Amino acid sequence: MSELRGVGIGLGVAQGPVARMAEPLPAPADTASTRDAEEERARARESVSAVARELEKRGAQAGGAARDVLEAQSMMAEDPALLQEVDARIAQGKTAEYAVFDAFASFREQLTAMGGYLGERAADLDDVAQRVIAHLQGVPAPGVPDPGHPFVLVARDLAPADTALLDLDKVLALVTSDGGPTSHTAILAREKAIVAVVGAAGATELANGETVIVDAAAGVVVTDPSAEDLARAQHRADARASAASAPITPGALADGTLVPLLANLGKPEGAEEAVALGAEGVGLFRTEFLFLSSNSAPTVDQQRETYTRLLEAFPGKKVVVRVLDAGADKPLAFLNDAHEDNPALGLRGLRALRASEDILREQLTALAQADAATDADVWVMAPMVSTVEEARYFTELARDYDLKMAGIMVEVPSIALMADKALAVADFASIGTNDLTQYTLAADRLLGSVAAFQDPWHPAVLRLIREVGQAGRANGKPVGICGEAAADPLLAVVLVGLGASTLSMAPTALADVRASLLTQTLDDAQRIAEAALTADDAAGARLAAQQAATRQKETQQ
User: Fold this and answer.
1) Known catalytic residue: 235?
2) Which of 87, 117, 137 is the last residue in one of the domains?
3) What pLDDT digit, counting tens, does each position of 416-427 carry?
């Protein structure tokens, strides 16, 4: 037996034979076309259109976060500027296949250089280009294999279009050699509750048909397992399935300390599923979808209708709404579309809203109207707050609209270090661990080349979270977690030990986190958190927490 280590998604464990993702299509040869330019152009447009419609179809079938990603890919495929580049190459005598390959590659380089949100879209371009070229060549697009039996899917990484429609009756687990805990693959794996280990170096060396155990709780892939290993893994899987079917209870620690478990949602349509999975409210409602698909800001009436639909699904429950989090890395013509060399550090979040305050005021107006029309407990928060002055500005503005709970997102180290003063003016704080990790480690969370740094277990990140937790206790203000870190069952315990009073996550992660919290008391959580803080790096912190949690269980037995 040997092990490959990576980052586990959730607490699941699965076993089965490996089926490897096919390698990408080879680059088309740069040879002169034997067709006239108009014929090649028509071929290219037909294939681009076919791929765009297929992506839209997959998105509609998948729903949720996958739909948003695939719709974005569809729009990318038919981007007018990109199609002009394809036409220009065809006009030079190139084949449609090569023109698509070269034009997409050129755009990929441009997006990669931009970094941030647009840099991440570069990888999506590769997938779109592969699909268009495959259509032109009349061959299947590289994608998920179908060996005719259930399997463990192994790949370098998965394109959103592949992850969106995985057949969960056949895909037992997912293993990737690339990516991190906040990659598209990891996020979609959580949403679909797929047992997964991402970033497992050496995964591409696994052979087709080889039996492996994928242990997400431990973050390992066990190769050449014994019969005993397989039996133990199956027993754990059965026990977890049994626990998942147990009655849903409020989030709490073993000593009865309540830790409300909330849902991260991007659209009202996800509310019903979140409630069914045990969400006790909403810890993060992202409002960007209302703005990103439009050339102008939505009206107050349009916003009110959407917010009301969401709030009606949670009568008497807390719903935390984040005002528009956009800026130069997600350009909006009506907000800020000026070019910035480093958009992650530019005019984004609350900074962008202050520069276009009418948009912020309209959003607060709509939220206040929806609040008045429903029985939900509405909290509103600002993204990307970096100074105490910004915290004061937003809190006072929200109160002007009779929104009784106004808080801040803690995503920038400066505000984490000033949390004692910020929470003297704001009503609450919500820690966005994805961005907080990005800015603490100086590693773009959407850039694959530095994915290894994007780990919320890093002690530097944990220390900042502790600062905010202590500030919350000192000021008598609640501190929530709404980043991907809250979906990690063991890290959830650590976060509570550091002072988090609520945890918000993808709804499919709720059951695992609820079960994990029930194994520890508040004193245990604090001891486990202290153990993690003594480490030098993320891997060491995770291991120290695992060992502390194991010792605690052994002591109790």
Assistant:
1) no
2) 137
3) 999 999 999 999
